[in-house]
Structures are given as C-alpha cells and as structure tokens.
Amino acid sequence: MKDTKLIQEALMLAIKAHDGQRRKYTGEPYSTHPIGVSKIIETIPDHTPEMVAAALLHDVVEDCPRYTIDDIQQLFGETVARIVDGLTKISSLNKDMNVSMQAENFRKMLLTLHDDIRVIIIKIADRLHNMQTIHSMREDKQLKIASETLYIYAPLAHKIGLYNIKTELEDLALKYTEPEVYNDILLKLEESKEEQD
After folding, report:
1. What's the confidence (pLDDT) of residue 142?
2. Are 63 and 14 in contact (CB under 8 A)?
3. Cα–Cα distance between 42 and 58 in angstroms, integer?
4. Residue 40 CA: distances (Å) to CA of 67, 73, 128, 188
5. Are 72 and 61 in contact, with CB atoms under 8 Å apart?
6. What is the pTM of this model?
7. In the chain, which ranges are E strands?
8. What is the Cα–Cα distance from 82 to 118, expressed in whole angstroms?
9. Between 20 and 30 A from 196 (CA), which of 52, 53, 147, 179?
10. pLDDT tens digit string along 9-56?
C-alpha cells in the first residue's frame, strides 16, 4: 500500500510541477512524457516503486526551478532523490557540450556509472518514449536523435539486458536513419505473415 502511495504522490507532483508546460514538438501537456516513461519502467522485470516514482519526477528539478533535489528527498526519500539527481546531472551534461563530444562523453559516463543502474534504466526509458513520439520533430532533429539512439542507447540497453527495449529502440531509429531499409523489412514481414496465415 505504501508503494502505491509513493507512485500516486509522484504522479500528482509531476502533473503539478509541469502544469502549463507543453512538449516542444507535439504541443501536448508535458506531463504525458513522464507518465509515458513511467509506463515503460513498469514493463521492466524487477522494477521498483522508487524507479516508477523517479521516472515520473525525472524532469521536475531540471524543468521546474521551484523544486530542488532536497524537496524531492523530503517528499519521496533518499532513493528517489538520488535517482532523480543522477538523471538531472546527465541532462545538464548534455547541455554543456558540443554534439560529438557530448555523445562520446555521455556514452563513457553511462558505461562507468556504477552508483545506481536505475539511473541508466530510466534514461533509456526516457529515450524510448522520446523515440516513440519523434514523428512530430523536424527531419534533421529526427535523424540526429535516431543516430544517437543507435550509437548510445540501444547498445546500453543491450548491455544491461533490456533486450525488448533495445529492439524497439533499433526499430524506431532505423525508421528515421534508413527509411527505405525499414520500409523494405516491414513489407517483407507483412508478406511473410500473410503467407503464414
């Protein structure tokens, strides 16, 4: 029962903190993003309520200046605060670097991050949700994000055993990096299914 309360309170804070914010490319309420990320976390075997709560809160400190890591710790405990803090640090790293340095340093940092694997898992879920909603972005952004996904996130998902997420990341990325190949494969799969049916 305590676990359900933690998640409900995290959901309520995420909705409150992101009230009035919109997703940049889709225009939908921003809270749909942390909710989407938390739903992905819930599909991962052995997920914990703290992971779901942290997924719901992962952008609160970064995007809502009125909330701090201390606030998160007081409201949700040390574990959730530590995970959110790790996610916030990764996001700030991204903003401080040029694109090629960012990708390599980000990859190295994630590979050597031993503090809490849950930070990496939520970051991968965050990327998966962004890939699921990438269709509304400009074409150049789609290509950049899809390439970064293939280079960094899919291998990381594989490395930590998130094989279903790795496959979905690769499929979504292929759709934008190699659309002809993606459509070819899709057509062949449909033909094969029709034959099997």
Report:
1. 92
2. no
3. 15
4. 24, 23, 8, 28
5. yes
6. 0.87
7. none
8. 10
9. 179
10. 999 999 999 999 999 888 899 999 999 999 999 999 999 999 999 999
Look up tokens 């290509």; give the residue.
143
Which active-site residues does the annotation give? 62-63
Cα Rg for the chain, rounded, in angstroms?
18
Rounded Cα–Cα distance for residues 174 and 153 (Å) = 13
Total residues found in the chain within this entry: 197
In DSSP terms, 56 is beta-bridged to none
Tell me how far apart the alpha carbons of residues 111 and 152 are, in angstroms, rounded to a whole number.
Answer: 10
**pLDDT single digits (tens) 151-183:** 889 998 998 899 999 999 999 999 999 989 988
